Fold these 4 entries.
Entry 1:
Amino acid sequence: MSAPHVLIIGAGSTGSATAHDLALRGLRVTVVERGEIASGTTGRNHCLLHSGGRYCVNDQEGAIECIEENLILRRIMPHALEMNDGLFVALDDEDYAFKEKFLAGCAACHIPAREIPVQQALQIEPFLNPQIKAAVQVPDGVFEPWRFCTSFLATAKKNGATIRNFTQVNDLVFQGRAVAGAQVFDHRTGKTEIIGADLVVNATGAWAGMLAAMAKVDVPVAPTAGVMVAIGKRFNNMVVNRMHLPHDGDIVVPIRNTSIIGTTSWRVTKPDAIEIPQDQIDKMMQAGQLLMPILKAGVQRGVMAVARPLIASANVDARDFSRTFEAFNHRKQSGVAGLITISGGKTTTARGMAEKVSDVVCAELGVSAECKTKTTPLISYRDFYV
Ligand SMILES: Cc1cc2nc3c(=O)[nH]c(=O)nc-3n(C[C@H](O)[C@H](O)[C@H](O)COP(=O)(O)OP(=O)(O)OC[C@H]3O[C@@H](n4cnc5c(N)ncnc54)[C@H](O)[C@@H]3O)c2cc1C
């Protein structure tokens, strides 16, 4: 008897990591993605391999997930990462007063953090604001989003998965009330077809609510946008963060030859049509220049905005939604079998998200197979097209 077939919708970091996990457990896997790999939120995010430092005071669950996954990714996909560390710097007395809370938060979340002398920080990062009052080094890093996803997908393909980009789900198909596959449109051939499946995983990120609506079920996903401004020159070696609770424009991530300032946070209803207000761009530039005055001299190379698929909490401001993740089994929640949604989290925690949803998938299909992704090195992204 052949293994059960799982259809994964979406090839961002979450769907890609899930394809790898399930293929490694011996399931038959097909991934469909309406655009190119990583063309959703994953391909346009800040590319920070989180140490968890940004969340260690106000969202310790999210921070612990980040540091655990950060350390795993360093082992399984070094070819997709720049392991350059990060600095949290205090710019004023308020930041300085936050330092003890920050260090205690790092300790509580097991984030290796060490304070370094200001002079040393300025030697490592000569373009930092020379007025900084303290600096703490943490194991932040930078990932390359397309390589991140294709490393997972190349390995999934090697283990038998089928990956179909430019293939959009326009509807779900049902047997009775249960989801039994999807109707897809192939943008390259112009053909519509049905892909049957024993189970469908909704890994469509900020679009998860729209996909779930095809099965007439709800998921509490709150698309939460953020703006980033790319400066066309790299001014920092490490990631530079401001030492305070996450706020607008308080981080500069060096990606290849650019410096990306980010980010803001507000709720949106249509992830495909996010307008970028000029005042948000101005805010990024002003706040970024406080950290690194040289950014003023840099040329703006681009401005982008994408939406986080965060899990909404009642009466909580979008900036304060937890960065943790959840798998929603719609059979248990709404009586619609055959569909599971995975949402929330971050690209940094994609492997952990995949483990969680794959455990739910296997339990639902009666498959007994352990997760092996923590210790299985991924093959190179270069093998994706082999
Ligand atoms: C401004 C900003 C900055 C961020 N910075 C970071 C960071 O520095 N580090 C970090 O770890 N995380 C960061 N994140 C979070 C991270 O980007 C997201 O958590 C992550 O990319 C979500 O991945 P995903 O695979 O769930 O969603 P996506 O990457 O959006 O993937 C979902 C995919 O589903 C596809 N899809 C949708 N509908 C359909 C359909 N009907 N048929 C077929 N395919 C469909 C989409 O095209 C898309 O490619 C940031 C988020 C934002 C908004």
Entry 2:
Amino acid sequence: MGQLSGKSIYLTGGASGIGKAVTEAFIEEGAVLTILDKSAEGLAELKKKFSDTVKCIEGDVTVFEDHVTAVRTATETFGKLDVFVANAGVFDGFAKFEKVSSDAMSEAYDMLFTINVKGYFHGAKASVKELKKVSGNMIFTVSGAGFYPDGGGVWYTSSKHAQIGLMRQLAFELAPEIRVNAVAPGGTLTALHVIPPLQPFVKIVDNETKEKSIKTRNPLRIAMTSEDHVGAYVLLASDKARAITGEVISSDGGLAVRGLS
Ligand SMILES: NC(=O)c1ccc[n+]([C@@H]2O[C@H](COP(=O)([O-])OP(=O)(O)OC[C@H]3O[C@@H](n4cnc5c(N)ncnc54)[C@H](O)[C@@H]3O)[C@@H](O)[C@H]2O)c1
């Protein structure tokens, strides 16, 4: 018996990176998944690999109706919804506030906050009724940027702080029926996408440079992979975490103890 045996989980952004690794880990632990992602190609790969264990919905987290479709698909296919994982997100590429034009600043704000923050609001709202029926839980992918500067630029960092605020307020409002927690990965080797309005203002680095830079920025000197974070998600989704709500598990190589040197 896996730790998530029989659980029906709805996860956004499962076609790539951290969401894909979490999807695979959840399936290994006995769960069935409904995935919402905009990448048709990534979803087709998931479907090929996992067949009836996953239902894939091609859509956009900024569209509330797409979440409603995903939740309905999960309940019609698997009979219930136990866990919602808000994970799909985009990046600002460490763009510097002063260097970005005011038009690009505004466009980037609307785009990044609509995906990273409103996307989480939408998913939570669409899931809450079904989660309440089974005393389920929500897990938000946040980031070290939800606590500290220099995990991105102002757009990404403020969006990740906002996600933590949303998580804590929901944990307060939805108790005692629903637990709400977060996982905060540190810099991870994925294809995390820099939004178009900020692309002219950032340097896109190759994977080798990215790996070196991530390693020097955390005390454990790890350039993390998506698989490094899955244990935290499995724990929070499982009944073993029944006393945990309103918490963030940091999976970041020790950013909180990096000191000043
Ligand atoms: N990579 C890192 O260093 C890092 C660190 C901390 C937190 N995170 C967070 O992890 C989460 C996943 O990012 P990742 O690094 O795995 O990136 P990724 O690009 O590999 O995966 C993101 C997935 O979300 C999907 N997506 C993006 N926008 C969408 C939209 N509007 N509608 C539907 N699907 C959409 C993409 O198609 C992709 O499959 C994000 O919330 C990100 O902020 C990443």
Entry 3:
Amino acid sequence: MKIFDIPGFPNPLRVRIVLAEKRMNAQVEFIKVDLPAAEHKQPAFLALNPLGTVPVLQLEDGTNISECTAITEYLDNLDGNPILTGSTPKEKAVIHMMQKRAESELADPVGIYFHHATPGLGAALQPYKSPDWEGRVDWGNRQRERAIDGMKYFDHLLRNQPYIAGDAFSMADITVFAGLLFAGFASIDIPVECTALSAWQTKVQQRPSVKNPA
Ligand SMILES: N[C@@H](CCC(=O)N[C@@H](CS)C(=O)NCC(=O)O)C(=O)O
């Protein structure tokens, strides 16, 4: 299997944590995509993922799978022993619900803020991401507020349960963790009163897969 991505970026990290949790590092070859140079907006990469985002998992038969959730489902279920995406219908439903909230209430608003209210990844990429970005700053700043509301939501949740989807670590935790990483990169701090969220972040940072992702 091949993974097209760039190390250190939030969504690639999600899949790299999954690979480490599943001990599958040796099964994957990484191919670096130059995001600041907008390599992922050129025809060769758009043939892999028309949405122009990383990561992309390419299977041996040439199938290209984008979207971290889909990639995670594939990798987690390959050995018939899912540990991150649930094994019962109820577990799967709750994990997917929380995973979606992690994207829609935290990671996505951070991304919109970063790409539309700041210079983002720089001059080569900005024309693809936000051609008239100076006209979108207000909208981008509103997403910053939404991301902070998302942090408060997850903080509230974590006051009563150890992990985002309940009692066990799951892909929803990985998505919130990556969302917070992106927020830090975009200089959106966790509010000081969100002590449960900060404590959870510290706990997740201690996991071997997070300390040493693929
Ligand atoms: N929903 C996508 C998000 C992927 C994504 O936004 N990846 C970022 C890297 S962290 C990216 O490709 N950014 C460059 C761009 O959007 O132009 C997923 O789950 O894979």
Entry 4:
Amino acid sequence: MLQFLHQNQIINEARLPADLTVLDYLRESQSLCGTKEGCASGDCGACTVVIGELVQDAEGNETIRYRSANSCITFVGALHGKQLITVDELTQKTNPPSDTVTGLHPSQRVIVEHHASQCGFCTPGFVMSLFAAMKTAKDVPVSREYINEQLGGNLCRCTGYRPIIDAAEKLLNCGDIVDQFDHNAGDTIQALRGIADNSVETGSGFFRPVSLDQLYLLKQQHPDAAVLGGGTDLALRVTQQLDSLESVIMLDGVAALSFVTQTSDEIRIGAGTSLTGFRDALVHYCPELDPLLARFAGTQVRNQATVGGNFANASPVGDLPPVFIALNASLVLASARGERTVKVHEFFVSYKETLLQPDEIIREFMIPLAAFDVSLLPSGDNGIRIVNRFYKVSKRIDDDISAVCAAFHLQLSGNTVVAASTGFGGMAAIPKRAQALEATLAGRVLDEQCLLDAVVALTRDFQPIDDVRATAEYRSKVSANLLHRLAAEIYTPDVATTVESHGH
Ligand SMILES: Cc1cc2nc3c(=O)[nH]c(=O)nc-3n(C[C@H](O)[C@H](O)[C@H](O)COP(=O)(O)OP(=O)(O)OC[C@H]3O[C@@H](n4cnc5c(N)ncnc54)[C@H](O)[C@@H]3O)c2cc1C
Ligand code: FES
Ligand code: FES
């Protein structure tokens, strides 16, 4: 039985189709039409809802964490044990402090006051993103950059973004606003506690195991069932290709898949960790990665998407594979038969094909700490400097898939590259190392001649793909230019700051 909290009621659903989206559930079964459908592919944010989940705060107390999600690409099964909040529920009918005239929630009222809506189609989505941002903003004052990022997954085609951002700035800089959800927090926590974090099997093909053993067994018994991480890729098969998924095994209930921990020599990342959780953890080890992660989709997608899903979907333009390849990461494939560890750069076999067998799942990833910390290099420190650089080139800054993604991990002694490892996305049918390039860079200073040689080496490594995102010629040119950018940033550190602050 699926159970979740909605409008202060525990909802019990026994036989919903495994691939029913939250958006269709709301609009078609519940006649709650405040949540809009724009693109049905996670790109516009019109369908944004907020999902509340019981978590422990830093002091170990239970609290509710609110995160936005695109309901068009979230299956209803993902709501099990959680609270669903939609725009229909925001208006404050009871409980002060409400706007006594209109009952509007503060995240709605600022939109009205700043004339931040014209046709209004995008407005429920913006309101829900503002609501989520209000619930998660850690620091006041909140910068416009922060707001841009929070709203990066919402599109408006008629108002213009300035008044919307002004509205957000007003809302998020007001200090603590107490709303009806804060008033009800005790009851909500109680209700969520009452929904057991149990395994679920709906009888309509939806499985939610809660342990690795259950998961392996289910995958063995149902090798054709679709494994569901965040669904930000899988759900498009339903909403864009109009496929049906007969059975779905959701990873969300398996706590052992969702973690980021450090051992003496590695960072271990559970495959079910969300992109948001991964970003929060990795910024401490590798701040250089943060600008790339900020440009991975929009906030709603990052909240749902998992690290494992970004590898299992084997997209040639996924953003994490080039990074993990350059950082010399490994991954663990596991099933009821046992487990095996492989290097990420060996995991991708050919277009959309990986080493993953039908009964296997990706369980976790390991990134060597030496990728960030020179003292952990096998050769010891020896005056070596580590440079990690990650570049994403796409048509738009926010919420866009890469045309080219390039990741560089270099060890430098003075100005000389001692060792280089690289990962590229968008340059071949699979995410790949550039081995000829790595060999060319090793032992050299990145001067003009070295860069000329490096560009030639890149042509040996890649014959780029030609598709709607970019031509092969563009990709070749861009990847060559990124080598020049890398050299400029290494030898003139101010260049990096200038380029980042312009968001490219
Ligand atoms: C609007 C939008 C923007 C996007 N922008 C980006 C972007 O900027 N960069 C980028 O790289 N990607 C982007 N994506 C793609 C997608 O969000 C990512 O690939 C994401 O990491 C997929 O993770 P998921 O958990 O949602 O995968 P799911 O959709 O749940 O699964 C994807 C595939 O992997 C399988 N799978 C998932 N987890 C596992 C596992 N642990 N073991 C085995 N198989 C598994 C599933 O069965 C499925 O075949 C975007 C998607 C959308 C909709
Ligand atoms: S309808 Fe566009 S993101 Fe969901
Ligand atoms: S107000 Fe019309 S799309 Fe935003």
